[in-house]
Automatic annotation (TrEMBL):
Highest taxon of source: Bacteria
Residues of the Helicase ATP-binding domain: 170-359
GO CC annotation, single: cytosol
GO molecular function: ATP binding; DNA binding; helicase activity; hydrolase activity
Any single biological process term in GO: DNA modification
Alphabetical keyword list: ATP-binding, Helicase, Hydrolase, Nucleotide-binding
UniProt protein name: DEAD/DEAH box helicase family protein
UniProt cross-references to InterPro entries, sorted A to Z: EcoEI_R_C_dom, Helicase/UvrB_N, Helicase_ATP-bd, Helicase_Restrict-Modif_Enz, P-loop_NTPase
Gene3D superfamilies: P-loop containing nucleotide triphosphate hydrolases
Length: 908
């Protein structure tokens, strides 16, 4: 038997697997089945190897080559095309041979001639007759529909998400089979992917999409994201439009538009086997993946064309290594999502990176926070130790049973053996004790509680040792520090939820369960007590600390936090930051140099990477705590350029791609060293130009000081006197004198002061933002006034308590003579409210009790925000009572008059 005949035997078997009836030409019966493959059918170019009939009509050609001709199979496509364009014996002239296959016993290539710019692609097997019939019945092909997406409504999307969505759709329009989206942790990869899935289902008429993960936990998270996703062009949620199914058995619902599965489960489904759910608990990585490639075989229930698209979450892991056949099985577009691609990832996705959004860019945009590195070196942790020949304690790793044995010889152990073969409790205790001493003094100065901290341990045994010592050294109970690993007795998900949302645990210890793909936004500190070999894995670990979080949400779990989350800390106790070259460069290279000195160094000519990058990091951190008015003022002083944009320019000045884009190109498109240096110098000069303005530098330094506190841990205080300072009245007078100067300087500049001075409440009500603007100006140089300083000063003179931000109104009114006595703003509003109610009820009509409840709510809102508007009635607490509609129902046509009168009567 010749080699081609042998190949045909295999192809016959594959065609039968795919649902075709095979026939020789002399016994041809196209009506025998939906799909019929006829051997050696005659054409005017000679007999073709197979002619495919679907629903009695000839629609496709198969050209067969022997095993060793696989390397030239691409060239065979031209021969197949000639057969497809030939006249079929006995057939009418308008026969449309649309589908073409080239095959050996191991390879199958496929082309759909109805695709614009059609292109041959590898497929695992021949498409089933039902699939070809479905394509024939459609008005156009999937690949043609992918060329015509409507414009994206960009409302509510970040720039990086818009870039990814549009980049992916451009890749689809070019019929690229694989595409990679690189997006920093926290930038919204899943949200972006769901948006793409929605557009593929709606506009490209995709049949079914597989969302592939490598842990059950990530699958559950993805399912929740799909459930709450609401598209911009439809009021319904995603599951109301398209069926979403997370696979937890060997069955795939045929009506599911979105299938969420681990790659381990999908492999078991294709193999027709059940799966132990424990296999889905632990993420795939180079460190825990064992064995050779996972072989799959044809599954008629779930053929290769079952999915049109596969979205691969966290695709930087080893799914493209030992698990690659699961992906190669399906005739689908592959979309990879990752924050940390490596060379293998780029290679697998054919270097088709449709969108890149780095951690550094995310920090500039406020999507991520930057991190600092704090080193703890110990003698044993760095160099190991020697145990001299003696009786030593030994412990069983799992049972923890202890025994004593005599050593036969001295034992010298290194860092690799530490906590695996040898446990040194003193080394762990020294690290934890140092961490305890430094965490609220140097790492997070001023914190009263330990910021949420995640400790990475080497093994579960190591984690248990760490937990015991953490509890002892901090003098806390079991709730303070807990283990979150796959082997933990306590439900890991419950502990993780407590760690994310509750006050305790303050410290969690893990091996790798929350190293990747798990959000714990309040997490501010990562303590490494294990080294990591994989650069990508380390980057993923760092990603746990990079999530941004607002102040209100942060203080719910860390009450002493003074700002929103503006940075995270890496505490390196094992040299992990030195043994690995993280692709993310630390921004602050000169943490010991003040921001003022960094700025002056640049003004005096410093142009090195470390100085400029360090200042960029400081600017980004400062930008995270500035209020709206401070950010506006900083931008004005810099000629309209926001502080975070200046930081971006500084970082771009040392970004090779940005420099090359700026540089003048040579005729061949390359950039000479001279042009590169010139372009970089231009970018640096542009970035640092605002720093030459002394007023700008002074503003940044002063505003930084207004947000900073100095913690003095070097001087121990003792009480020498308790009582009034002898010259406290003099100091109070100085504060009030400064306040009067502030009022005089700004009475025509600030809206709130102008309204109070002119009693123009009726024309324009006071607002909370106006009062915040006044307070921000009070804090700036040369006044340096705080609310508490004014409180104490007027308390000395008036013996009154002034404690809220809105009380600044009362102080101003008292100071300029609008009030004869100083009372808190709340008391002022309440007194005015009583007078107003008495006046309104003096007539024949009285407010009902329900109306009075609403009026009291309006009064309380004015106490904290100085005014009330109709828009405010749609917010808390009014929305819980029916909002603006209910207010209108109660007060009818008088509803606007009521608001206007209260704004005037209660504040003026």
């Amino acid at each position: 038997m010749d080699p081609e005949a042998k190949a045909r035997l295999v192809i016959d078997e594959k065609l039968e697997q795919s649902g075709y009836v095979l026939q020789d030409r002399n016994e041809m019966n196209p009506a025998a089945s939906l799909g019929v493959a006829v051997r050696e059918y005659a054409t005017d170019s000679g007999p073709c190897d197979y002619l495919i009939f679907i629903d009695r009509k000839p629609v496709g050609i198969i050209e067969v080559k022997e095993h060793n001709k696989g390397e030239s199979l691409t060239a065979t496509a031209e021969q197949t095309r000639r057969y497809a364009e030939s006249t079929l014996k006995y057939a009418p002239a308008d026969v449309d041979i649309r589908f073409a296959y080239e095959a050996t016993d191991v390879l199958v290539h496929f082309t759909d001639y109805h695709d614009k710019n059609y292109r041959t692609r590898d497929v695992y097997a021949f498409h089933r007759p039902e699939q070809l019939k479905s394509w024939i019945d459609e008005t156009d092909t999937l690949r043609n529909r992918l060329r015509n997406f409507p414009e994206l409504d960009e409302t509510g999307f970040r720039d990086c998400q818009i870039k990814a969505i549009k980049g992916l759709e451009k890749s689809f329009s070019e019929n690229r089979p694989r595409a990679l989206i690189q997006m920093a942790t926290g930038a919204g990869k899943t949200f972006t992917a769901i948006t793409n899935a929605y557009r593929l289902l709606k506009y490209a008429k995709a049949k079914r999409i597989l969302f592939l993960v490598d842990t059950k936990n990530l699958g559950e998270q993805a399912e929740e994201e799909f459930k709450k996703y609401k598209p911009t062009d439809d009021a319904r949620l995603f599951p109301e439009l398209y069926s979403v199914s997370r696979l937890n058995s060997s069955h795939i619902p045929e009506d599911a538009s979105i299938c969420i599965s681990t790659i381990q489960r999908m492999y078991s489904i294709l193999r027709g086997r059940e799966l132990d759910e424990q296999v889905e608990e632990e993420p795939l990585s180079d460190e825990n993946t064992q064995g050779g490639p996972r072989d799959v075989c044809y599954n008629s229930q779930y053929p290769p064309e079952f999915f049109d698209f596969i979205i691969i979450d966290e695709c930087h892991r080893s799914i493209y290594n030992v698990w690659q056949q699961v992906l190669d099985y399906f005739d689908a577009f592959l979309i990879g999502l990752t924050a940390t691609p490596d060379k293998r990832t780029y290679a697998f996705f054919k270097q088709n990176v449709v969108s890149e959004y780095t951690h550094e860019e995310a920090v500039v945009d406020g999507v991520n926070v930057g991190g600092d590195i704090f080193i703890i070196d110990t003698e044993v942790g760095k160099n190991g130790a020697t145990i001299f020949k003696q009786v030593v304690e030994k412990r069983d790793r799992l049972s923890r049973e202890r025994r004593w044995e005599q050593l036969d010889e001295d034992i010298t152990y290194g860092v690799i053996s530490l906590d695996k073969d040898v446990v040194n409790p003193s080394q762990i205790r020294t690290v934890i004790r140092t961490f305890k001493d430094k965490i609220t003094t140097e790492i997070f100065p001023g914190r009263e509680e330990v910021p949420k901290t995640l400790i990475f341990a080497k093994t579960d045994s190591h984690a248990d040792d760490i937990i015991k010592i953490v509890r002892e050294e901090f003098g806390m109970g079991n709730d303070f520090c807990k283990k979150i690993t796959y082997q933990a007795e306590e439900d890991p998900k419950s502990v993780l939820a407590e760690f994310r949302n509750g006050y305790n645990p303050r410290i969690a210890v893990t091996v790798d369960m929350i190293a990747t793909g798990t959000d714990v936004k309040p997490l501010e500190c990562l303590l490494f007590m294990r080294d990591v070999r994989s650069k990508n894995y380390f980057e993923q670990m760092l990603g746990r600390g990079r999530r941004v979080l607002g102040h209100d949400d942060l203080v719910r779990v860390s009450p002493s936090a003074k700002t929103n989350k503006i940075n995270y800390a890496v505490v390196d106790a094992v040299g992990v930051t030195k043994s690995l070259k993280s692709e993310t460069r630390p921004l602050d290279r000169k943490p010991a140099i003040s921001m003022k000195d960094l700025m002056m160094s640049i003004v005096m000519g410093a142009r090195d990477d470390d100085t400029i990058t360090s200042l960029a990091g400081r600017f980004l951190r400062l930008n995270g705590v500035l209020n709206e008015q401070e950010q506006k003022r900083a931008s004005e002083l810099a000629g309209g350029v926001p502080l975070n944009e200046i930081a971006r320019r500084m970082l771009d000045a040392f970004d090779e791609d940005a420099i090359k884009n700026q540089a003048e190109k040579q005729p061949d498109g390359t950039v000479s060293d001279e042009a590169f240096s010139k372009a970089q110098a231009e970018l640096i000069d542009r970035a640092v130009e605002p720093l030459f303005d002394a007023e700008y530098r002074t503003f940044l330094e002063n505003v930084r000081k207004s947000h900073d506190q100095i913690i003095d841990n070097t001087n121990i205080d003792t009480v020498v006197y308790a009582g009034w300072d002898d010259d406290h009245e003099k100091k109070a007078a100085e504060v009030i004198k400064t306040f009067r100067r502030f009022l005089e300087d700004n009475k025509d500049e600030l809206d709130a002061l102008e309204i109070i001075y002119t009693d123009s409440y009726k024309q324009r009500p006071l607002t909370l933002s106006m009062i915040k603007e006044v307070y921000a100006k009070m804090q700036e140089a040369p006044y340096g006034l705080s609310r508490s300083a004014l409180w104490r000063a007027y308390e000395v003179q008036q013996q009154s308590v002034v404690s809220q931000l809105m009380d600044i109104i009362s102080i101003i009114r008292f100071e300029i003579g609008k009030e004869s006595t100083l009372v808190s703003f709340a008391d002022h509003v309440k007194a005015k409210f009583r007078d107003w109610i008495f006046e309104k009820n003096a007539g024949s009509d009285h407010f009902t009790e329900e109306q009075m409840e609403w009026l009291r709510m309006l009064r309380d809102s004015i106490v904290v925000s100085a005014s009330i508007s109709t828009e405010d009635l749609e917010l808390t607490p009014f929305d819980d009572r029916g909002g603006l509609a209910k207010f209108y129902e109660l007060f009818k046509d008088q509803y606007e008059t009521i608001l206007s009168e209260m704004n005037l009567a209660l504040v003026a």
